[in-house]
Amino acid sequence: MTGGHATGSGSAPDLVVIGAGTMGAWTAFWANRAGLRTTLVDAWGAGHPRATSGDETRIIRSSHGGDALYARWSRAALAHWHQFGEEWGETLFRPVGTLWFGHRPDGFEAASVRTLEAEGIPVEHPAVDEARRRWPQIAFEDDAFVVFEPEAGALMARQGTAAAARAFEREGGRFERAAAQPGRVADGRLVDVVLADGRRLSAATFVFAAGPWLPRIFPGLLGDLIRVTKQDVFFFGPAGGDRRFDGEALPTWVDYDAAFYGVPAIDGRGAKLAPDRYGPVFDPSSGERIVDPDSTRLARDYVGRRFPGLAAQPVVETRVCQYEVTPDGHFILDRHPELANTWIAGGGSGHGFKHGPRIGEYLVGRIQGAPLGPGEERFRLGTPRVPDSSLRTGGDSMVSGWQGY
User: Fold this and answer.
1) 42 close to 20: Cβ distance less than 8 angstroms
2) Where would a tag sit more exposed on the chain, N or C end, judged by fewer CB atoms within 10 A?
3) Which pTM value belongs to this model?
């Protein structure tokens, strides 16, 4: 066991983390390594299909426009994905790179290039003619320029979340598969959480990292701050023997202004494509995981324009995920304003998964008394949140209809 502290069956833990997605699993992992007796609780287990951290893959990239803090966090998280993938003997990251299609010389991509270069993060901006030679399976005719992050790529999302939870257990942490709600409150502190079977689990400190369930757990605090939306994902199957869309030939990619992103065919699956537009409000527990016909039409129209070799190919798999979005796209990583021993981690807003290892590391530091660093006030609950989706694809047009529950 490296670090960690076993939680005995007869003793209350130091920390209980509710939610085993990327934020919760990594928070529990780091807390255990910091010597806190930790219990991780999730209703369906780590990496389950209802979770925002479900599905097979996610993109990890450092481009966040002019936001240097997220660029640094992404690099710190990438180092952890590398480190622990090797330590655990699992392939959690595929270094296929990330390609950006730029339509405006003054857009998100150009701002990202300036930030990455200032931070010393590798970035390339090949001419479009060179991009056509490097990636002939992509149609570049409508692009003003392209940007390529050679050290970015794809994370194995479901696998990576489950791997972090397994490592937490191996090192002495306790995992409890159960639904949990806040329990008794005394003197401005949460005393325990109530599990679905009626048992109560007490601790010195609690972290609620329950993703799309957070607005239900704390409706008065988060009901108007986190909106949960349905997001459809498609996997297009290349023709038999066609290797042009495998990870060895195609990078992950983002078309920011068109609001699409994708991942190459990995592990024999199809090439992943997703419309990055906010879908309808969605119930993560009981919502049907069936893609909408309009999303299918949008995806197929885009594939026909951008990847001609997939235009006539079938959709071989679909997924329904969800975003849990805050108005400004920033995460919530803060203490509950009325419960001194309770913390909230959420609001992934479509770009949170890749940051998971850094988020957990950061939150454990804050719990142990670390002060806010420069730019980190954005994560506080009391900070005004002006609608802005510039951290995701889709741009400002995606937030015009913002509303809470």
Assistant:
1) yes
2) N
3) 0.94
